[in-house]
Amino acid sequence: MSALKWIGATLGWSLGGPIGAIIGLALGSLGDALADGKETLLGDGQPKQQRPRYRTRPDYRTQQQKRAQTTSGDFEVSLLILASVVIKADGSQDQRELDYVRMKFVEMYGKDRANKAFRLFKQINNQNINTRQVCLQIKTMMDHAARLQLLHFLFGIAQADDIVVDEEERQIYTIAGYLGISSRDYNSIKAMFYNQSDNAYKILEIDKTATVDQIKRAYRKMVMKYHPDRVEHLGEEHKQGAEAKFRQVQKAYEQLQKERGF
């Protein structure tokens, strides 16, 4: 029984392009002996009976049509691949970073699914990944809110060993650029992982000279941008993960309320 049959109905666009090639190679490395043909490697959907086909031809559907197909499984494999890129950015793999990835996957997906995903992650980690190609596929197929959630997760990995080294930060910055994430959005999420005096302003994407009215407008804007409901199409597990980012926005606003006295 082919190991590819572990891929279930929860995977959509990520079966094609560079991501599909990476996942296909990783599954092949796992070996057919691991598969029983009854369970999915990623997600909770029922396995397809046919062998997945990796699309290589251009897809001319509109952005809205394509992004509507992003699933929990698509997000999951994107996360695994980009996590591997960040962990290897400084030339070494810290066990605390690997433990962080496992812990987060257990929190989101449960122990059984996380264990299966981590087996796949180990095989992905052995590959040389073309970061630009992977990110461009994600940018084309995944909506903005989900891409912001990916970035938040990557900063969490980098900080898992208590310090974000320059190589890791540069790699995340490069990934953000390839994903089409603006510098304001990048700095907002980055500020959630640093302890600096102006972090509250950066999280809300405003300057220190902002008026009270501007702070209030910025807060309302960021609530809309980072609200967990924006990623509910990815499944409850990712909606829960987005709450940590949302709480940082609320905390930043409350801090400025206290400092400015409004």
Description:
The protein has 262 residues and is mostly helical. It has two domains: 3-181, no CATH class; 194-262, DnaJ domain (Helix Hairpins, Orthogonal Bundle). Helix content is 60%, strand content 0%. The protein is built from twelve helices and no strands. It has helices at 17-30, 63-67, 72-87, 95-109, 111-125, 131-141, 144-158, 166-178, 183-191, 199-203, 212-226, 236-260. The radius of gyration is 19 Å and the shape is globular. The N and C termini lie far apart (64 Å).
Map the helices and strands.
Elements: H1 17-30, H2 63-67, H3 72-87, H4 95-109, H5 111-125, H6 131-141, H7 144-158, H8 166-178, H9 183-191, H10 199-203, H11 212-226, H12 236-260
Helix pairs in contact: 1-5, 3-5, 3-6, 3-7, 3-8, 4-5, 7-8, 7-9, 11-12
Domain J: 199-261
Region (Disordered): 39-69
Protein name: Molecular chaperone DjlA
Separation of termini? 64 Å
Main beta sheet strand tally, sense and closure? none
Q: Tell me the fraction of residues in β-strands, as a range.
A: under 5%
SS content category:
mainly alpha
Number of strands: 0
- Shape, per Cα inertia axes: globular
Oligomer: single chain
Mean pLDDT: 80
Compute the number of structural domains. 2
- Rg calc: 19 Å
* Low-pLDDT runs: 1-9, 32-62, 64-68
The ordered H/E elements are HHHHHHHHHHHH
Helix content: 55-70%
Number of helices, counting only DSSP H or I runs of 4 residues or more:
12
Protein name: Molecular chaperone DjlA
Organism: Mesoflavibacter zeaxanthinifaciens subsp. sabulilitoris
Region (Disordered): 39-69
Pfam families: DnaJ, TerB
